[in-house]
Amino acid sequence: MSRLVDFDLPSLGGPRALEIIVEEAPDLPAITVSGAISEETAVATLTAGAVDYVLKDHLTRLAPAVRHALEGADLRRRQRAADELARQSQFALEHSSQAVAYVDESGSILYMNGHAERLAGVSREQLVGRRIWGWSPMLDEGSWAALWAKTVNGPVLDLEVPVETPGGRRVFVSVTLDHLAREEGDFMIIYARDITRQRETEERARETEERYRRLVENLADIVFRYEFEPDRGLTYINPAVETITGYSPEEFYADPTLMISMAHPDDVHVMTSLFSTKDVPPDPVIVRWVGKDGVVRRMQSRLVPIRDDAGSLVAVEGVARDITKESEAAERVAHMRDLLDYVVSNAQLHRHP
C-alpha cells in the first residue's frame, strides 16, 4: 500500500499531510501529486518524506511510481529486519557464555567477543590482528595449517588443549573449530570454554579413586560388588579373594555362580537365598566357604544394598572377612569353659555327698 498526497489541498497543505503520514505510518511510502510544483517544492516534499512526486499532466507515471515506491518500501523493511537481526546476533555473540573468535587462514585474529577477551586476560584491541600462535604449546604455524586443512572439507573439530593466555593464565579449554566459507574470504570460528575447574575436579576424583583402589586391593578382607542388573555377576572383587579361597578374581568374573557353588553344602541355601531373593539382611551373614585347596573357612560378610532411583535393588556391595581362627578360638574357649564348669560341678558333688 502507498499514499498519494495532493500537494495543494483546500483544508490541508501537502507538507502537513506528509508530516502526518510520516508520523503515523513511517513505513508507508508517500507520493506527492500536484498540478504544478517547483523544483524547490519538489525537493522539500522529498525531504519531508515523500518518495516521489508526479505532475497531474503526467499521470501515466503514477503506476510505475507507485510500484517503485512499494518495492523501495519493501526493500527498506527487509533491510531494517536484517539490520535488527544482525544487531541481535551481535548482542548474543558479545554476551555468549562461550569465548568466540574468528581467525583467518594465516592465523590472524579477526574478531573476539567479550568472553574471549576475559579468557585472554587482555583487551581485544591488543589481540585483533595478531597471530594466534603462542596460546598453546600444541599450536604453531604448522599445526594451525594442519587444523585449517582438516576443517576446510571435514567435520567440526572438538579439542581439549592447555592454553597459556596472553594475560599469563594457564588454563585448559574445550575448543570447537568450525570452518566458514565466504566469497570475501574464509575464516575459522573458534568456540572455547574454560574447563580448568572441571579438569581439576576430574583429576582430584581420579586421585581419590586411585587411592581407594590401592587401599581396597591391599586389604586382607575380600571386597566385592555383585550386580543383579542388567546381568547377574561380580563386577568387582579384590585380590584378597585369591589369598583366602585360592580362586582368582578372573575366575569369579567368568563364573557368576562361583560364590554360591563354593559354599559348604550345608550353607548353599543361605548363599542361594541371598542372590536369588535379593533379600539383603541388615546383620552380618556367616557362611562356610570351601576353598580351592579343600579347606573350609568360616566367612563373615557385611552386605550393603545398592538401589536405583525407583528403589529397586540393583547390586550388593560387601566385605567378607575370614573369621575361621576367631571362631575356632571362641569354640576352644567355650569348650574349656564347659569343661571347667563340669569339673567344678563334679568336685562339689564329691565334697558334699
Structure, explained:
By secondary structure, the chain is α+β, with helices and mostly antiparallel strands. It has four domains: about 5-90, Response regulator (Rossmann fold), CATH 3.40.50.2300; about 95-200, PAS domain (Beta-Lactamase), CATH 3.30.450.20; about 220-320, PAS domain (Beta-Lactamase), CATH 3.30.450; about 325-353. About 40% of the residues lie in helices and about 25% in strands. The chain is built from eleven helices and 13 strands. The strands form three sheets. A five-stranded antiparallel beta sheet has the order 5-4-8-7-6. Strand 1 (about 5), helix 1 (about 15-25) and strand 2 (about 30-35) form a beta-alpha-beta unit. The protein is elongated. It starts with a strand and ends with a helix.
Structural class: alpha+beta
Please count the beta strands (DSSP E, at least 2 residues each): 13
**Describe the biggest sheet?**
5 strands, antiparallel
Order of helices and strands: EHEHEHEEHHEEEHEEHHHHEEEH
The CATH superfamily of the largest domain is identified as PAS domain
Number of domains: 4
List the main descriptive attributes of the protein structure presented here.
Rossmann fold, 353 residues, Beta-Lactamase, 25% strand, disordered N terminus, alpha+beta, 4 domains, 13 strands
Secondary structure topology:
Layout: E1 3-6, H1 14-24, E2 30-34, H2 39-48, E3 52-55, H3 62-94, E4 99-104, E5 109-112, H4 114-120, H5 141-152, E6 157-164, E7 170-180, E8 187-194, H6 196-217, E9 222-227, E10 233-237, H7 240-245, H8 249-254, H9 258-261, H10 268-276, E11 285-290, E12 296-307, E13 313-322, H11 324-351
